[in-house]
Amino acid sequence: MRRQISGFSNPTVKAIRALRDKKHRREERRFLAEGLRLLTDAREWGRIPEILLMAEGREPHPLLDALERAVDDAGGEVLELTPELLAKVTGKENPQAVAGVFAEWPTALDAIDRTAPLMLVAQALRDPGNLGTMLRTADAVGAGGLILLDDCADPFSVEAVRASMGAIFTVPIAKARWDEFLPWLRAGPSQLVGASLRKAVPFRRAAYQAPCFILVGNESRGLPEDYEAACDLRVTMPMRGRADSLNAAVAAAVLAYEVDAALRP
Prior knowledge:
By secondary structure, the chain is α/β, with parallel strands linked by helices. It is built from ten helices and twelve strands. Helix content is 35%, strand content 21%. Helix 7 links the parallel strand 7 (146-149) and strand 8 (173-176). The longest helix has 16 residues, at 248-263.
């Protein structure tokens, strides 16, 4: 059922806007996503928003009609807001014509299919844009998932969801501490490959094996020494210019495609 809202004082609108705040989002275990393409990707993967927000005066679209039907069928709520009110809710001056509120899903390690040939692992990744980009890369190379170690940025933040370009809905995500991840990893076949500068081999000459877990460290500090020591293989990428390292998400993408090529028959 569709309901029109025009005032920012509406309690539902206030609660949705508060999802941009990390503390409130974690308490509610819900997050905000926007854009017809992103929400369509979610619908196609079985993720239906609990609340669908639509701008008044938007252009009609069959995908939007399908999304509204899916929300109705799931017992969700459809709200129609003025463009100005939708902008306040999403925090964007020129918001998309549609947004949705989704329930978070479990992120335990058992969400990961560890038999997949390739997985991405990020340690203490702080930038939500990098996190979203890594999700997008994982989707692009067909990785089995993204594992977030230690104190990473929130994958359900508005910034990470936007940067993922819909991959938040298609790529399994797990969160764990290092001392939980390592025993889980060693409980089955695995090759842990760390992006490193310490006693590392060139990434194009490395002997990759499936299932391969590509481990990338914090943007500014890289991987802790004991994490590197636990790797089965450490690889490095050549720096031809003055830069001494790559952006964490870029490094993950370069390695992911190299490993994917190496593992394909």
